[in-house]
Structures are given as structure tokens and as C-alpha cells.
Design a protein that fits this description.
With about 425 residues, this protein is of the alpha/beta class. About 25% of the residues lie in helices and about 30% in strands. It folds into 3 domains: about 190 residues, 3-Layer(bba) Sandwich (FAD/NAD(P)-binding domain), CATH 3.50.50.60; about 120 residues, FAD/NAD(P)-binding domain, CATH 3.50.50; about 70 residues, Enolase-like, domain 1. Strands 3-2-1-7-21-20 form a 6-stranded mixed beta sheet, covered by helices on one side. A hairpin with a 4-residue loop joins strand 14 and strand 15. Helix 1 crosses helix 8. The structure holds flavin-adenine dinucleotide.
């Protein structure tokens, strides 16, 4: 069945939203596109916020995702600094927090995620979370004052902030509730390696540690741990994870859980799609080893996925409007992280699995590739300083290779 598509509304003017808008134009859609974003800037890139912007190598002029001319050429109705506050699905209308209403024929939801805060101390000067350009500039200006930096949470964002602050010659302490940095994405198997990376760089670390409070009246002076340890702090960055931005959808008929729930086509409802950090969907590429399990879904908080899913959502919206079959979105997830001069890359599913094998290089040399497997299949790869290896195993994951086939590939490469 064909559906009218004269006006597409995209909520979230960042990586996924921008790529969705571009894909619509690339595919020949010449109707109206309204892009709604609650930040004042034109779409900008977030990865440099914890890296080059904090170290001072870059300024904000390097952050925009497109030049002014490229953005202009998309011919969007760009509502910046405006917030979607509700969605009326039956009437195909979006509500804005200033009372305005925006009608749509097709809707793409790309509202991303927001960082979690601790239940205390977030009002103190010197205590930060990091998601936006404004957050990064506030942190940078605190780092300019020198002093002691405490990073709470050793996930990728926390570990990158620690690395950037350390690169500026600052005294950095990282506090993590688990037993090592980045356990979620790298698994227990690389825990010692990840801890050593930071330890050898000179970052002080507290693992299995619970933050119980902050000391300070106006400005933070120290962080207190549950065991009574007091760590002096002039700047604190809390990096304890993110939650998808979905509160504005709570009264809509869409299904929300840990993310806006979509089908394999990134569709949340007829003519409504989601993309990027906010979207949860079943990735068909990873269903083959999940026999007998209820359908598993993914929500990916990485740069490449936001681009690819934004494009996929836009294409499927156009296909649906033409009454044509939709295309399942089934990528091999990928991310990179830069820490202490090393590039850490991962692809597929890498968190604790049945199988783990260091297949190339050595941990001591900080140049290696390790693979992860589940139920006889290759599921993921981590490569440090070796992008070529990452791509080899990424291609195997795409082909749904078995664990034995992956080991065979490793033997062939090693010759
Ligand atoms: C500091 C930092 C470093 C990172 N480094 C890496 C890295 O090295 N490698 C990697 O792979 N990934 C990295 N990422 C992750 C990557 O940047 C994200 O996955 C990506 O930005 C997600 O894009 P998105 O468009 O889905 O969401 P976002 O970029 O979060 O954009 C969503 C937009 O929607 C807006 N919005 C939210 N709610 C509303 C509303 N109700 N109305 C209007 N607008 C709304 C938000 O303000 C935001 O502008 C990093 C992220 C951060 C924060």
C-alpha cells in the first residue's frame, strides 16, 4: 500500500538525524524535511569532545558535521533549540515544549541518549557529565585551572576523559565499580590489559569502588568512597553510562523499554522509524546462534551505527511510502576509542562470551587482535593498533562464520 509522504519530520539534529536527512535527499525525496533539535548548534561531532577538544588540540570550529553550504544544500526546515515534548501518533502530530505542533507524514526519531548522573553532588561546581559541546567546554575550562581530576566510571567515555586529562599533564584518578576499565565492551579477558594501559600511563585507579558522596560546599573538594577513602578533586567527570532520550514518547502509543523498540527494519510503527543511540531493534545478523532464545534486540551507542542506521531508517521510510518491501538493518556493530595514544577498535558482540582467543600480536606490545565466540560461532573482535585485522574478522562476522572458521583464518594469517 502506498502512503502519502510530503513532509518528513526528524527529531534529533545530530549524527543519526543528519544522515537520515541526507539519505532522504540522496534517494531523491524532494518533499519537506523538518529537522528538530534541542541544541543550539548545527549538527556537530561528539567523539572529539572527550579527545581533541579536552586536550586542547581542537577548538569547536572543527566539530560541525557539515559545512554551512552543505547543510544549506539539504534544504531543511531546521528548528534548532526546540524540544519535542510529545507525540500524537493517530493524528501524526508532534508537540513541542513551546506549545507548537508539527504535523508529519513520516517521522524519524533520532534523539540519542543522555548521561546518567549520581544521585548526589551534581549541583557542585566542578562536577560534570559529558555529552554535549557545552559540557565539553565546561570541563575543558575546569581542566585549564589544573589541579586534581577524578573520573568516576571507567567505561569508554571515562577512560578517554582520563587519557585526555593525563595528556595535559594533570593528576588523574579513575574510580570504577567493577574490577577493571571497559569490562562491558572488552570482557574480563582483556581486563588486566586495560587496567595496565592506564596504570602504566600514570593514572591512579580504584576498582571495585563505590562512590558514596562528594565533599565541598559550593565547589567539589573531594570524592568519598564507601570504604571511607577520600580522594581530593578539583574537577570530577561522571561517566557512568547513558539512557536513551525517550521521556517525550512516554504518552505515545510507541513501545519503549531500554530504547525505542523497533522491528528489524528500524520501524517503531507505520511510517515511524528510529535510528542511533535511541533505537533498539533485532539485528538479524546475530540471530543464527541464538536458537531457542526469544528474539534478542540491540541498542548501539556508537558513531558508525548512528550513521548507518540513520540512512537505513530513511531508506525504509521511503520504501514504505512507495509500498515496496523494506530492508532489514543488519550491520556488524563497530566502534573505536583513543586512549593514551592507542586506537582500540571493536566489532560485533565482544562482551563476555563462551570463547576468547588472542589470535595475533601480544598484549604486552599493545598491538593485537582477539576474537570472541558463542555457541560455535564467531561473534566479535577487538583489535588494538591493527585496523587491518579488525576488518578481516569483521568480514567473517558478516558471513556468520563459525568459531572453527575464524581459528582457521587466524592460522592462515599467522602462516
Ligand atoms: C564524548 C563522546 C565521545 C564519543 N566517542 C566515540 C568514539 O570514539 N567512537 C564511537 O564509535 N562512538 C563515540 N561516541 C558515541 C557517538 O558519538 C554516538 O553514538 C552518536 O553521537 C549517536 O548519535 P545520535 O544521533 O544517535 O545521538 P546524539 O548524538 O545523542 O544526538 C541526539 C540529538 O537529539 C537531541 N534531542 C534529544 N531529545 C530531544 C527532543 N526531545 N527534542 C529535540 N531534540 C532532542 C539531543 O540533544 C541531540 O542533539 C562518543 C560519544 C560521546 C558523547
Amino acid at each position: 500500500m502506498e502512503r502519502r509522504l510530503n513532509r518528513v519530520v526528524i527529531v534529533g539534529a545530530s549524527l543519526a538525524g543528519l544522515n537520515a536527512a541526507e539519505a532522504l535527499r540522496d534517494e531523491g525525496y524532494d518533499g519537506a524535511i523538518t529537522l528538530i533539535g534541542d541544541e543550539p548548534e548545527t549538527p556537530y561531532d561528539r567523539p572529539p569532545l572527550s579527545k581533541q577538544l579536552l586536550t586542547g588540540e581542537w577548538d569547536t570550529d572543527r566539530l560541525p558535521l557539515r559545512s554551512a553550504d552543505e547543510f544549506e544544500a539539504l534544504n531543511l526546515d531546521y528548528l534548532s533549540g526546540r524540544t519535542a515534548s510529545g507525540l500524537d501518533v493517530p493524528n501524526q502530530t508532534l508537540l513541542l515544549n513551546d506549545g507548537d505542533r508539527v504535523e508529519y507524514d513520516g517521522l524519524i526519531i533520532a534523539t540519542g541518549a543522555h548521561p546518567l548522573s549520581l544521585p548526589f553532588g551534581q549541583h557542585l561546581d566542578g562536577v560534570h557529565t559529558l555529552r554535549s559541546q557545552a559540557d565539553a567546554l565546561r570541563i575543558r575550562s575546569d581542566l585549564d585551572r589544573a589541579g586534581k581530576v577524578v573520573v568516576i566510571g571507567a567505561g569508554f567515555i571515562g577512560a578517554e576523559v582520563a587519557s585526555s586529562a593525563h595528556a595535559r599533564g594533570l593528576d588523574v584518578t579513575m574510580i570504577e565499580a567493577l574490577s577493571a576499565p571497559m569490562i562491558g565492551p572488552l570482557g574480563e579477558q582483556l581486563a588486566d590489559w586495560a587496567a595496565n594501559l592506564h596504570r602504566e600511563a600514570g593514572v591512579e585507579m580504584h576498582f571495585n569502588a563505590k562512590v558514596s558522596g562528594f565533599i565541598g560546599d559550593q565547589r567539589v573538594k573531594a570524592v568519598e568512597l564507601a570504604d571511607g577513602t577520600r580522594i581530593d578533586a578539583d574537577t570530577v567527570v561522571v561517566g557512568i553510562g547513558v539512557r536513551p532520550n525517550m521521556r517525550w514518547l512516554e504518552d505515545s502509543s510507541l513501545t519503549i523499554g531500554d530504547g525505542l523498540i523497533c522491528d528489524q527494519f528500524c520501524r517503531a510503527a507505520p511510517m515511524i522509524y528510529a535510528a542511533g543511540d535511541v533505537a533498539r531493534w533485532p539485528n538479524e545478523l546475530f540471530m543464527h546462534f541464538r536458537y531457542g532464545e526469544p528474539q534478542r534486540t540491540m541498542r548501539i551507542e556508537h558513531w558508525t551505527n548512528a550513521i548507518e542506521q540513520g540512512m537505513a531508517a530513511a531508506r525504509n521510510l521511503l520504501l514504505e511510502s512507495r509500498g515496496e518491501p523494506l530492508e532489514a538493518f543488519a550491520p556488524v556493530p563497530y566502534f573505536w576509542s583513543d586512549q593514551h595514544g592507542l586506537s582500540i577498535m571493536a566489532s560485533g558482540i565482544t562482551s563476555p562470551r563462551d570463547e576468547f582467543r588472542l589470535v595475533h600480536g601480544t598484549l604486552e606490545s599493545n598491538r593485537f587482535a582477539a576474537i570472541y565466540g558463542l555457541r560455535g560461532y564467531l561473534t566479535g573482535v577487538v583489535a588494538v593498533g591493527w585496523p587491518r585485522m579488525l576488518r578481516r574478522y569483521q568480514a567473517l562476522i558478516r558471513k556468520q562464520a563459525t568459531w572453527e572458521e575464524a581459528l582457521e583464518e587466524a592460522r592462515e594469517i599467522e602462516g
